[in-house]
Write a structure and sequence with these properties.
By secondary structure, the chain is mostly beta strands. About 10% of the residues lie in helices and about 45% in strands. The protein is built from 1 helix and 15 strands, in the order H-E-E-E-E-E-E-E-E-E-E-E-E-E-E-E. The strands form 2 sheets. Strands 1, 3, 4, 6, 11, 12, 13 and 15 form an 8-stranded antiparallel β-sheet that branches. A 7-stranded antiparallel β-sheet has the order 2-5-14-7-8-9-10, with no helix packed on it. It is globular. It starts with a helix and ends with a strand. The N terminus is likely disordered.
């Protein structure tokens, strides 16, 4: 009897398509599953070094909760830079040690940014070795206080608003061969931009603070993907 009902449903769908010119879904034609950003990618292990104000112990600006697998990094605008005598802004960051010049690489993590964090870059692709006269980064994602916390590429293109005090997923995929970067917010593609030319790169995440007061970012479920 179930087989008879299925044949009747297919026959009805075919008749409707013939009359209207529009195909209908039937029990025999299930809807395809949406493609995830990581489909076709391979997860790899990664290592990192911690960057922090040069005169502080790491525990004063970084905390790891093994129970929730959460990395919490914070810094104050009055903190010292990474190296004594440097003119760079203060930071507490995970500096990934996987450097690359070619291929496809993706940074993936859940992100939590507390309210009050304003003017801090929390994820970037750093061009650690790059031709003279070219930029030091391919992309930096910065949070500002507008609209309940807004993430932008540098200070222009909006990635996501209303990010304060909630977990959300961020993926940044870089095709170094094609010179293309794609940014996904909660698995939705929100930005595609060109990189800034040939270089040796690596990922960074944490807080690199250009604003005032305290800046903090938390990360969990951090993954590294290659293709």
């Amino acid at each position: 009897m179930p087989a008879l009902r299925t044949r009747v449903a297919i026959a009805v769908a075919a008749l409707m398509a013939a009359l209207t010119g529009v195909a209908s879904a039937t029990p025999a034609t299930a809807t395809a599953t949406a493609t995830a950003p990581t489909d076709g990618w391979q997860q790899k292990s990664f290592t990192y070094a911690m960057h922090k104000p040069w005169n502080l112990d790491l525990s004063e600006r970084y905390r790891y909760d093994s129970g929730t697998n959460t990395h919490t990094m914070w810094v104050y605008s009055t903190d010292e830079p990474l190296e004594e005598g440097s003119s760079t802004d203060p930071r507490t960051e995970m500096r990934w040690q996987q450097e690359y010049t070619s291929g496809k690489h993706m940074w993936d993590a859940d992100v939590y940014i507390p309210s009050g964090t304003n003017g801090a870059d929390f994820m970037q692709i750093l061009r650690v070795k790059h031709p003279s006269g070219t930029p030091a980064t391919d992309i930096m994602l910065r949070v500002s206080s507008e609209n309940g916390g807004t993430v932008k590429r540098y200070t222009d293109q909006v990635i996501k608003s209303g990010v304060y005090n909630k977990w959300w997923n961020l993926k940044v995929a870089h095709d170094a061969d094609a010179g293309k970067i794609q940014v996904y917010a909660d698995d939705q593609l929100v930005l595609t931009v060109a990189d800034r030319g040939a270089a040796t790169r690596h990922f960074k995440n944490g807080v690199y603070h250009h604003g005032s007061g305290r800046a903090e970012a938390r990360f969990r479920n951090i993954h590294y993907w290659v293709k």
